[in-house]
Amino acid sequence: MVTNPTVRALVLVLATAGGAGYAPVMPGTAGSLVGLPLVPWLARERVASWPFASGVVLVLVLVAVWVAGRAETIFGAHDHSSIVIDEVAGLAVAALIVPDGWGAACLAFACFRFFDVVKPFPAGLIDRRVRGGIGVVGDDVVAGLYAGIATRLLLEVL
Predict the structure, then answer these.
(1) Three-class secondary structure assignment of 41-79
(2) What is the pTM (predicted TM-score) of this model?
(3) Could you tell me which residues come within 8 angstroms of residue 153 by beta carbon, excluding any fewer than 6 positions away?
(4) How remote is the C-alpha of 141 from its chain's centroid?
(5) Buried b (16+ CB within 10 A) or exposed e, 32-70
(6) pLDDT of res. 4
(7) Is the link from the previous residue into 122 a cis peptide, with omega within 30 of 0?
(8) What pLDDT was estimated at residue 1?
(9) CA gap 124, 128 in Å, rounded
(10) How far from 6 is each of 3, 9, 64, 123, 125, CA to CA, in Å?
(11) Whether residue 25 has pLDDT greater than 90
(12) Residues 120-147: what's their mean pLDDT?
């Protein structure tokens, strides 16, 4: 339980990606849009320093797991629609695979949204069976991996 009002406020701001999770329609897409600018930046950083970029993504995923777990308690529901930090983390994972540039970032965004909604194995299994922050973020990490791979493949074909 989150009882400290300052921690509670921080959890809500982070979990909703600055309030994007409160969007009345498609809050997951709104949260993904918040994460979109990270994609070309992380892709560029990955080229310069794989350890740095992967470290940033790892920290983001770990923070997302912690925040999402606390936010579930606050919202009183598993993977509440207002929790969108998992979308930001998932797109960051995709950035470790895609090339630098806004075109690749936008394609990764579209692929990520597809895989986040469809939840191909093992994302759907994680979403249904794993509780807490790991369950909230885990399916998005898988969607991010799939989105990064799909984006790379699509760019090779196109």
Answers:
(1) HHHHHHHHCHHHHHHHHHHHHHHHHHHHHHHHHHHCCCC
(2) 0.94
(3) none
(4) 7
(5) bbbbbebbbebbebbeeeeeebeebbeebbebbbbbbbb
(6) 86
(7) yes
(8) 66
(9) 6
(10) 9, 5, 18, 33, 34
(11) yes
(12) 95
Task: Determine the distance from the C-alpha atom of residue 8 to the mean position of all C-alpha atoms in its chain, rounded to a whole number.
Answer: 21
pLDDT digits (tens, 9 = 90+) for 49-100: 999 999 999 999 999 999 999 999 999 998 899 999 999 999 999 999 999 9
Per the CB < 8 A criterion, the answer to whether 7 and 57 are in contact is no
- CA 3 to chain CA centroid, Å, is 26
- Please report where in the chains the tokens 């979403």 appear, as a residue: 127
Residue 20 gets which letter from DSSP? G
- Burial degree of 15 (CB within 10 A; 0-12, 13-18, 19+): buried
Does pLDDT of 48 surpass 80?
Answer: yes
